[in-house]
Amino acid sequence: MKSNRKKIKIKKINHVGLSINDRTKSLNLYKDLLGLEIIPSMIDQDNIIWTKTSDGTMVHLVEPNAENGIILPDFHVAFEVENFEETLEVLKESDWEIVIGPGERMDGQKYVYILDDDNNMLEFTTNNYIKHSDRITDELGYSKNKDI
Hints:
This protein is mainly beta. Helix content is 14%, strand content 36%. The chain has one domain (11-130): 2,3-Dihydroxybiphenyl 1,2-Dioxygenase, domain 1 (Roll). The protein has helices spanning 23-33, 84-92, and strands at 10-19, 37-39, 48-52, 58-62, 76-81, 98-104, 110-115, 121-125, 135-137, 143-145.
């Protein structure tokens, strides 16, 4: 590994993904006790509930999805980066393979995933809500477009 290689410039942790088994039971803790706010998901997967803390950091609660498999890993951490295109170049020149992405969510947020040497999933993202979205959510975290 080269010691003088370019480094990814991380601004903050954008979100973490946590594995849950039952959204009703889990929301008792995350929403009712911890006070996380359920927000509209910017992906079309009913098994993922998007929530956020009072400072805006998101926690994605991921239920198993036996029918389709889970596209996103159950547990992962997402780092918001200063420059996404530069991050892609750094990753392409690194020893770590891009395993998902690059892609873009409904709100314009860009993402890319790698696995570290211990098989932990790491996501690198832009900031959220780059473009407007009409997504809405119900009290159990199921999200849809407003006009549906």
